[in-house]
Amino acid sequence: MAKFEPISFSPNLAHVLGFRHGPRAANPPAGNVWDYDTGLSQKAWGIARRTIDTYLPGIEPVGMSCSQIEARSRPTLIFLWPHLAARIQMDRRLGIERHDVPKWAPCDAHPNPYSMTPQEMHALQPDLVDECGRNFLNAAYDLAVNVGLGKIGAMCSHVPFADAGARRARLKLGIKESDGWLPGKGFETGAFVHLAFGERTPHWTDEIPFPPGSKFLFSCEYYPVPAE
């Protein structure tokens, strides 16, 4: 768990800040935990300002990615860096397509799907949640390659994408506590992970066929929402 202080970014690594969108204005309707249309609550702006002041003073990402669930993903990045809104590009790997919502029927059938933890979602639909994690981490890798060494990218996703992506990164780095899931409350709404990528390391050995000279995961740090 990282400290409540400005992040130091190594010039020898490519950096990606992977956010989970800020709090919703209202819970989603029953049977539709994805809810494409509900925006952010008024608390999201305050979370964004405290995040910048605490962790990222003076930091400006050179590339940013949001999901296709734009009512929450894009505004989260805009609240963080209002003057950089034009840099935000959509990456559909960070969210879910409307036609894929039926795949989540087992989770939507839960008595209170909105309150499900990522671990509970994984227990119910492990393959689908693992796919979310792969998508999140692959999107982070591509963003790191695009921004380059010594530069910073930022992206915003959702539950369980952000959570499963952080878990996947931690497992690749050999962090086995809690089966890789983040400790404590896990990935809070508005929180983020800092993924740093460098030259080839022994951690990437399976499904992603990286070419020679590409960037590889070096570290994964979790940053909770700063207190008011």
Describe it for me?
The protein has about 230 residues and is an alpha/beta fold. It has one domain (about 15-225): 3-Layer(aba) Sandwich (Rossmann fold). The chain has six helices and six strands. It has a six-stranded mixed β-sheet with strand order 3-2-4-1-5-6. Helix 4 packs across helix 5 (about 125-145) and helix 5 (about 125-145) packs across helix 6.
Describe the SSE topology.
Blueprint lengths: L13 E7 L22 H13 L7 E4 L6 H8 L7 E3 L14 H4 L9 H7 L1 H22 L4 E6 L3 H12 L19 E7 L17 E8 L5
Parallel strand pairs: 1-4, 2-3, 2-4
Antiparallel strand pairs: 1-5, 5-6
Helix pairs in contact: 1-2, 4-5, 5-6
End-to-end separation? 19 Å
User: Which strands sit side by side, in order, in the main sheet?
Assistant: 3-2-4-1-5-6
Radius of gyration: 17 Å
Overall strand count: 6
Mean pLDDT: 87
CATH class membership: Alpha Beta
Q: What's the number of domains?
A: 1
Written as H for each helix and E for each strand, in order along the chain, the element string is EHEHEHHHEHEE
- The secondary structure category is alpha/beta
3D shape: globular
Enter the CATH topology name: Rossmann fold
Quick recap:
The chain has 228 residues and is α/β, with parallel strands linked by helices. 29% of the residues lie in helices and 15% in strands. The chain starts with 13 loop residues before the first strand and ends in a 5-residue tail after the last strand.
